[in-house]
Amino acid sequence: MADQSKLYRETVKGLWKENPVFIQLLGLCPALAVTNSAINGVAMGGATTFVLVGSSILVSLFRNLIPKQVRITSFIITIATFVTVADLTLQALLPAIHKELGAFIALIVVNCLILGRQEAFASRNKLPYAIGDAAGMSVGFTFALVILGGIREILGSGTLFGFPLFGESFEPWVIMILPPGGFLTLGVLLIIFAQFKKSRARKALVRLEKEAA
Amino acid sequence: MASDKKGAGPFRLIATLGLAGLFSGLVLVTVYLATQPLILENQAKALEAAIYQVVPGSETRKAYVVEDGKLVPFNAQGNNLPSGDAVFAALDAQGKLVGFGIPSEGAGFQDTIKLIYGYNPENKRVTGMQVLESRETPGLGDKIIKDLNFLSNFENLAIEPEVVSVAAGSKKNENEVDSISGATISSKAIVKIINSGNSKYLSLISALMESEEKP
């Protein structure tokens, strides 16, 4: 069976250390396009989770049967099938959310995060690790989308998950829920993440030097 | 990939993709068949709710479709709604006609806007408007869906000689619609769509009402 500590490592890495949006900068198209409110971030994250975990399971199960020459095509067929299932299910069960996300559900097919995880991980690893990796990456992706959506919704509409936060006098920064707001928010968050990483690396260096001395 | 040894032959490649496609097709057909009734039901529910919203006081509706340049009653099986060009006669609890729900569509700022508006043939007024489908700019153009000040323009709107959109806050006459500032194009699009619905259906509706009055 799976080695527990490796399984843990592969699962947790997607949350923070290799966060798909903030560190790997993958899947930015949906991350910028639909995050004008926190609830959209949750829905997009949920749909992406379903597709990523589903395709990773199939790709990992069949990894020894798929010839290398047609692997990308097979991945895309798998991903596209899951996306269509997600699209139809959302349309049937949650029409309001589907209306909000519109074309972006169908565009999960070309989310490079999903194809990237199949090629780089699921097609080379055993099932438990593939599931762990996909789940971790999905949670990391959803987390990033909700953060982006939350910040943009608070500043751009003065609400969070639809609940008004400020009084009548608050003038929303409309730009935050328009495309430029997505770039601005992501840029600022990337600066924060980069600073955080740098200061952690510096601390680790100081510690090593102390130990050496 | 374990099958790297010597590479796979063409038969293997075709078989892999063929099988993948086959299974994918099977899954999709199953899910489509399972979800389609629900999806249609959702759309019908949204349309139905919109009719009652735009024609105040209405509780039931009767669908009419366009056939040979005339409105004829739509014979629905079950609770189905017509898919093509149609108008809805909205009736109150006693079965008295209170107005018509008229669906119409046209170009918006980014994509086609589909809407339905209520029409009262007695005083020739628009009684309400609801956007069914649109992809206008979030935060600006999409105010046409929820902006209450804008929507209130349509609650008692004269349609003769035609509906006119005017700059925000300058509505003076009963056939004028205040635009939303920052969403002028979307506001104008709504007015245009209502006018096109009027020119398409109003003569049909008055013909229908005349023919229904004399038995």
Fold blueprint:
The complex is a heterodimer of chains A (about 210) and B (about 220).
Chain A: H1 4-12, H2 28-33, H3 38-61, H4 71-93, H5 95-101, H6 103-106, H7 112-120, H8 127-157, E1 159-160, E2 163-164, H9 179-212
Antiparallel strand pairs in A: 1-2
Chain B: H1 10-54, E1 60-67, E2 70-73, E3 86-91, E4 97-107, E5 112-120, E6 125-133, H2 143-146, H3 148-152, E7 157-158, E8 164-166, E9 176-178, H4 184-213
Parallel strand pairs in B: 8-9
Antiparallel strand pairs in B: 1-2, 1-3, 3-4, 4-5, 5-6, 6-7
Q: Could you walk me through the main structural features you see in this protein, from its secondary elements to its overall organization?
A:
The complex is a heterodimer of chains A (213) and B (215). Chain A has 213 residues and is mainly alpha-helical. Chain A has one domain (4-212). Chain A contains nine helices and two strands, in the order H-H-H-H-H-H-H-H-E-E-H. Chain A has a two-stranded antiparallel ribbon. In chain A, a hairpin with a 2-residue loop joins strand 1 (159-160) and strand 2. In chain A, helix 4 packs across helix 7 (112-120) and helix 8 packs across helix 9 (179-212). Chain B has one domain. In chain B, 39% of the residues lie in helices and 26% in strands. Chain B is globular and about 80 Å long. Classes of the chains: A mainly alpha (213), B alpha+beta (215). The A-B interface holds A 36, 63-71, 73-74, 77-78, 80-81, 84-85, 88-89, 91-93, 95, 99, 102, 123-124, 156-157, 172, 174, 177-178 and B 1-4, 7-8, 12-13, 16-17, 20-21, 24, 27-28, 31-32, 34-35, 38-39, 42-43, 46, 133, 135, 137-140, 182.
